[in-house]
Design a protein that fits this description.
The complex is a heterotrimer of chains A (358), B (271) and C (293).
Chain A: E1 4-13, E2 17-27, E3 32-36, H1 43-51, E4 58-63, E5 66-67, E6 78-81, H2 93-103, H3 108-122, H4 137-149, E7 155-159, H5 167-184, E8 187-192, H6 195-201, E9 204-209, E10 212-217, H7 219-224, H8 229-234, E11 241-249, E12 252-255, E13 258-261, E14 274-279, E15 284-286, E16 293-303, E17 307-314, E18 317-324, E19 334-339, E20 345-347
Parallel strand pairs in A: 3-8, 3-9, 6-7, 7-8
Antiparallel strand pairs in A: 1-2, 1-4, 4-5, 9-10, 11-12, 11-14, 12-13, 14-20, 15-19, 16-17, 16-19, 17-18
Chain B: H1 2-23, H2 28-32, H3 44-53, H4 63-94, H5 100-108, H6 119-128, H7 135-139, H8 147-158, H9 161-169, H10 174-185, H11 187-202, H12 206-211, H13 220-228, H14 237-257, H15 259-270
Helix pairs in contact in B: 1-14, 3-14, 4-8, 4-11, 11-15, 13-14, 14-15
Chain C: H1 11-38, E1 41-43, E2 50-52, H2 56-63, H3 65-98, H4 100-111, H5 118-128, H6 137-142, H7 153-182, H8 185-193, H9 198-228, H10 230-236, H11 248-257, H12 262-287
Antiparallel strand pairs in C: 1-2
Helix pairs in contact in C: 1-12, 2-12, 3-4, 3-7, 3-9, 5-7, 5-10, 7-9, 8-9, 9-12, 11-12
Classes of the chains: A alpha+beta (358), B mainly alpha (271), C mainly alpha (293).
Amino acid sequence: MAGVTLDTVRKIYSGNVEAVKGVSLGIEDGSFCVLVGPSGCGKSTLLRMIAGLETISDGEVKIGDRVVNQVEPADRDIAMVFQNYALYPHMSVYDNMAYGLKNRKTPKDEIETRVKEAARILAIEPFLDRKPRALSGGQRQRVAMGRAIVRKPQVFLFDEPLSNLDAKLRVQMRVEIKRLQKALGVTSIYVTHDQVEAMTLSDKLVVMSSGQIEQVGSPSEVYRRPETRFVATFIGSPPMNILPGKVEGPGRVSVGGQSIAVTDMRDGLTPGSAIEVGLRPEDVQAGGVGSSSLSMDVDFVEELGATQLFHGKVAGADFVVQASTGQIPADTRKLALAVDPANVHLFDPQTTKRLGRV
Amino acid sequence: MAYLTLVIGVILVAFPVYIAIMASTFDTATIINGNMPLTPGDQTLENYSRALFYGGKTAREPVMGMMINSLIVALGIAFGKILISILSAYAVVYFKFPFRKTAFWVIFITLMLPVEVRIYPTYKIVADLGLLDTYSGLVLPLIASATGTLLFRQFFMTIPEELLEASKIDGAGAFRFFKDTLLPLSMTTIAALFVIQFIYGWNQYLWPLLITTKSSMQTIVIGIKKMITTTDALTEWNIAMTTAVLAMIPPVLVVIFMQRLFVKGLVETEK
Amino acid sequence: MEKRAHFSGWTLPLLLIIPQMAITVIFFYLPASQAIWQSFLREDAFGLASEFVGFENYSAVFEQPEYYRAMITTVIFSTLVAFFSLAVALLFATQADKSLRGGHGFKTLLIWPYAVAPAIAGVLWMFMFHPTLGILGRPLNVMGFNWNPMLDGKDAMILLVLSATWKHVSYNFLFFLAGLQAIPKSVIEAGAIDGAGPLRRFWTIIFPLLSPTTFFLLVVTIVYVFFETFGIIDAVTGGGPAGQTTTLVYKVYADGRSGGDLGLSAAQSVVLMVIVIALTAVQFRYVERKVQY
């Protein structure tokens, strides 16, 4: 087993397009690290550089204690699960899993033991003789996983492995991947654009945007204390509401003329200066009136079953409130919202960085 | 209505061949006097065995030998083209090397000029190389074309990139990737190209006409022509038609029984 | 479009591409450039020395009345074969497209002439239309049509057009059928709802949608008539009677055969090359899609 260390890794494509702009990151041995971000943020490129499928323009990639910049993919002791699975269409499931081992001159009975073992874990034993095209999407996904497992690598790399599955299967496979990773204890790096996948799978969550890391932390850290406005609106569903506001004084801001108390606020901000106020839809209490409150004009309601989403405007900006079904009458036109000072996030309108306590 | 048109079409298309088959069942005299019946005669066995093992009066070369020559040329062209073009397409698609684009264009330009426009200079080169009246001379100039390379290139482009990447991670190098993955996946394309090139090779006319002087090197298509160019009175039409039928059998069978591959090859090499 | 993933190194790819390169250079570029070079030279009577004469060979070629006749013959031959083979193929293809169930069987029964060698196609038709013993040629004479392709240039041309068309209909049919089957049925149904009758639907909807296929086939057919019909001509008429069915390609062959001037023959080849390149350049609009370098 081994951890993975990235030291100011860059990827510059011809024509000076910088896809990855100096990323440094330490991934501990045995942990599950998820790289999340919108498409084009450089997360896949980063993963492919770790795999050895892209050259590294600058910086250093270490697997364990070994610098692997110049090492062939096959010799990096990694295994990868691709988005489209990349199963060899002309080989049986068994041969797909055995191919990498055969190329490494693994003894035949050893190959058989390992493939059978992986097939058992993934419940694909009945399909070993079939060709990939005779399998369903979920089964192919398992074969792709099996191909990675049999190699017993130092690191698993996943490139959006669930995005070709339907919603229900995706949830199921997500759980299985997590369980499998815990059982095998292999360092895993997982790329996705789906923030739910990212939150549920990761020990260590890395949010990326335009070739750079926005924030690294545990899922709850990232959720509770987003470091930038990008992270705040990317992680969490529905996304965080951002309202324009003004600094009133220490621990207080105003939004649309209404004053709100804030727990996590930087000292020394100039009163009267503009500030962005972030509130998660699930963090505001509808109907309650407290020391800090906002009023909202409701436009319409979305039913999600257990919860309802109230869409409307606060201080002229779009605003969404999530509430348990039945808590608020659906025909409400005007809502009073109570805000817990601990749940208010403040961002600098220019730098978009969090203006919390240092 | 549609049905009727098609039936008439099929009859029109088949009629010349039907007549040829009928002619191959009569003796010369019956045909010469111009009253050949439209039902089979009784000379079938005689005509076919004579043509195959003896030949005609004017060209005393057994058709069997010509068919073997045609087969060698057709197979040579088909396999030769498949071999050189799958290799070059592999190089062009899966490697980055100096002058790759130049190499591609050098090959690609050959699409534009069929062998017919450069026959005499090509003839001279083949003669200088001492390849007149040889199978190599018959085959090599005809495989200098880009169709195969383009076909394979086009197919390789449809193979997902991840397959190569997965192979790399699985420890397969350039040779193993070709043998274990690319070649098995290309089988249909290879077969389609084979069908088209076999027909192309079997039906060659101008080139073999120029470079074969020995009758032992004649292909069957050339052989027929030699049987009927002499004065009418001497033409053994029954033998000529028997030979024509024999010449049509292999390529027509290939089209009929490998229709799916034939259509694929035709559509993809030409478009 | 290019692959993102590659193998590295360049010795292996060069080794892989060498066979094709060698054959292409030796049997394609060398002869083609020699033809161009020779077209500017004149050899002395003994073929021992040659001198550079510029475009003299070309002007000599264009001064030959036979050259113009061959050109006209080629144009007539191409036009007739292109028209008939496209029209007949389109007719068959529309009918086969209609009859869905029988379509496949008919396809097999209509495409096999593609596999018949041009020279053999010519022999088959000549046998049928032989003036004295042909099953169709003899009745023509009995009816007093005075049919003789061996002596009459028009008759010879008719016979060539018939053979060349017969062989090429299958090819055009196949592509037309594929083109027709690629037209979404909903478009035709929309036309029906808009009140267009079957014939009107064909000319206002189907035919315009088929025009790329038609254009492609037109170019391919012309190239076919230029080159592949050589076998038909040589087997049926040998360019005769009296050179009346000699096309440009056949003339290059015949002049060379009779041991004519190398420079003249080369100049003719070069003119042909220019024509083919022009034709192919037009066709490239379609090839482009697959060559995106």
